[in-house]
Amino acid sequence: MTARPDPLALELLVAVAATGSVGAAARTVGMAQPNATRSLARLERQLGLDLVVRSTRGSTLTDAGAVLVDQARQALAAMDAVTDSAATLRGDSTRPLPVAASQTIAEHLLPRWLSTLRSQQPNSAVAVHVHNSHDVVDDVRSGRTALGFVEEPTVPGDLHSTVVAHDEMVLVVAPHHVWAGRSRAVRADELARTALITREPGSGTRMALDEALDQQVRPHLELPSNAAVRVSVASGAAPAVLSRLAVADALSAGTLVTVPLGLQLRRPLRAVWTGSRRLSGLAADLVSIARDEGEISSSQ
């Protein structure tokens, strides 16, 4: 049986995905870069997979690394939950703020928001749990987390919410797909008839697409993460509709290309919570940062 990965190595892998650099990832986790390089190399040997591609322009994840980083986030969140529970049992007053976020937000926006929060409040502590949007709502409802960030087109009426940013969804295919280079836009009815690679039911991406088409999509394949969808699309299996945030690196690298759409797929990203309508404390500060940075991105 393969030995369990070192949690610090998993944390480094997640940090490489967020920062695009082994050096920056090492600084994020408080480790010297040579030690971080050795830790990642040891993780690759242990798993028998190449996870990180290093170049003079930085570091990116391989397809295998992109798939495994989602599971690494979940494993780290589970370990954080054990730590949080122990703190509660001890009666510690410094329990981190529990926050749940859907995958696209957790991968591409939340790390920057948390970095800004930490720079403003160095002693702040946040425990992040990553799920699809449906499960984030469940976490908030149950009280397991104090705050959630979701991609759902609508929010249940029993939750308070505020829009913090907007996200564009795009149709992508492999460069050798028959739709690559197509100039005529794919209409909604044609997209609805096409078997797509999709995220699982309950994900914000899937719900937003179902709502935009006014019907459930026809899945060629359902996968539990953006990374898994990207890898499958790049193989030429079928098209997919994903957040532009989730495919930006693949578009830059040329492993995926966009296809024009005859409908606009722009969705709001929201913070959700229960209890008092007015947020306070660290949760209010994090939502304010998310909203401010969302406005900056929209104006660029």
UniProtKB/TrEMBL annotation:
Signal peptide: none annotated. Residues 1-62 form the HTH lysR-type domain. Coiled coil: none annotated. Keywords: DNA-binding, Transcription, Transcription regulation. It comes from the Bacteria. It holds the Pfam family LysR_substrate. One of its GO terms (molecular function) is DNA-binding transcription factor activity. Belongs to the LysR transcriptional regulatory family. This is DNA-binding transcriptional LysR family regulator. It comes from Yimella lutea.
